[in-house]
Write a structure and sequence with these properties.
0% strand; 2 helices; extended; mainly alpha
Length: 65
Amino acid sequence: MAKPNTKFNLSVKDIDIIESALRTQLDKKIEKNDTQAVKEIRNVLGHIHQQKNWYRPKSTTYVSG
């Protein structure tokens, strides 16, 4: 039996394309009121969001927001 690939080599542009496609599908699923698909897509988008490395300046006087 084959093992699933757990290591991916995706560029930032690749991830951006995937995220955009998921957001487009999310809009369509919301219009169709497909709550299960909406939950699944939001879950994947959440995983993508949590894996991003957010830029923070090294300055000690940085004010966010």
